[in-house]
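Same chain as my last thread, 292 residues:
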Amino acid sequence: MTETTRKTQEEELNQAVNLWKNAVKAGKDTEQQKEQVWICFFDWCKDWDTIQDPLYTDITEKKSINLLNLFYKTLQDFDPDRGIPYSRYFGSIWHERKKDSKKAIERKNNTASLDAPLVPNGDDEGDDDLLETTIADENQTDIDHRIELEDRLADLASLILNLRERIGSRAANPTGERWYRMFFAEDITKVIKTVPLHFTHEDDIMNALYQNYLDYYTTQKCSSTAQIRKTPLEPLSKFTENAADTEEITWERFPVCVSLTYLSRCENAVYAASEYSNKRKTYKEIMQRENI
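reply #2:
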């Protein structure tokens, strides 16, 4: 399937869902509209790479009931007035469900098994009904918040990757660009450590951040946001040169000395803490001007 075909199918799905949901609100929905939503959904997802997961091997098998259950659920809960495309809404929740289902199976069997039951079976024991409750019981605002974060960080990555075109070559000088990519690395680390996000264009996220700086404060090289989430950060002592600072830096405690020592040790560039603050302020102002 070409990317163009994929995008067209996604647009057709979002349009069909919006037409049907608005018709439902107006009390004028028809079976034909609902059927069109089904057709668009199956056209869109049947070759979707992210669905071809070992736990959900083929949409024609019974394991695909997970997908269908979630389709029913999200279709009922989706509100076009939120301003989020249905495909984006579904994709975010589907990603979380796959992850939660896999964790449940691993807890039960200690290893992920393709034959493990993934759908409610009517029993009242164990993790049956997980599919229907894991995300459904979460506050809707939490789901929207994750989607908003993903979109904002993706927009910020796009801004950084096209900085000269967006803010001008003078403002996007090499020194400023380095700072902005370092700040983006910090922001991604802080967010990804606390909120489970899934990026459609993962490469853009990783290309926008300052990889050498990321490698400096993580205990091993990370080539994806999933690795950033799992990888411990360096102990504070690496940046303060105080052996007593044995605790790991965290998103709550990400001191200025991390970036300042990186620049002085690795790039022979010495800055004061006040310069860090000024650059951070400029970074935020650019985001505000670009509506990010």
